[in-house]
Design goal:
163 residues; mainly alpha; three-stranded antiparallel beta sheet; 9% strand; globular
Length: 163
C-alpha cells in the first residue's frame, strides 16, 4: 500500500468519524446484504474480531489487515474478506451475520474507525511492520506451532513475519 493510499484512507476515516451517524439496525429486508464491499467490510472485520479487546489490541487487528494488503499488493477490503483469514467470516458468514445483526451500530463502528486509524498510524513504524497474524489465547492454530508471539494484548497473541 503506497503512502498516498494511507493518506487517502486516513482522510476518509477522519471524515467518517466526524460524520458518524447512528447506523440503522439490520432488518429482515437487509439481512442478505450483510457482507458489504468497501471500507465498511474492513470496519466490520475489525469490530467482529476485536470489539471486546483493548483499543491497542483492536488497532493491531486492523494492522494485520493493512500489513496483509501491503505484502500481497491488494487492498484492505480484499484482505478483510479473504476466505479463511478472519474467523468472523468463516462458516459461510453465519456467525458474522448474527453478530452484525446484534451489535453493529454507532458505538461498534466508531470504535472500529478509531482502531483502523490507529492501525494506519502503526503501519509506518518499523516495529509494527510484518505483524500479519494473530489468534486468541484460547486456540492453538497449526501455523503458530513453534512461533513466538511478538506482542500479547488482551486475549490476542500477535506474530511477525509468518508466511
Amino acid at each position: 500500500m503506497k503512502a498516498y493510499n494511507i493518506i487517502v484512507i486516513t482522510s476518509m476515516l477522519t471524515s467518517m468519524l466526524a460524520s458518524c451517524e447512528r447506523i440503522p439496525a439490520f432488518s429482515k429486508q437487509t439481512v442478505t446484504d450483510w457482507r458489504v464491499e468497501s471500507t465498511e467490510a474492513v470496519l466490520q472485520t475489525i469490530a467482529m474480531e476485536s470489539a471486546n479487546q483493548p483499543a491497542r489490541g483492536q488497532a493491531l487487528v486492523a494492522l494485520t489487515i493493512i500489513n496483509r494488503a501491503r505484502i500481497r499488493h491488494t487492498t484492505p477490503e480484499i484482505e478483510a474478506l479473504r476466505p479463511f483469514q478472519y474467523s468472523a467470516w468463516n462458516r459461510g458468514g453465519k456467525w458474522a451475520k448474527a453478530w452484525l445483526w446484534s451489535y453493529w451500530g454507532y458505538k461498534a463502528r466508531k470504535q472500529a474507525i478509531l482502531a483502523y486509524s490507529s492501525g494506519l498510524a502503526m503501519a509506518s513504524k518499523p516495529k509494527f511492520q510484518g505483524i500479519r497474524h494473530y489468534h486468541t489465547k484460547a486456540v492453538h492454530p497449526g501455523w503458530a506451532r513453534g512461533q513466538t508471539p511478538c506482542l500479547v494484548i488482551g486475549d490476542h497473541k500477535f506474530y511477525k513475519d509468518i508466511l
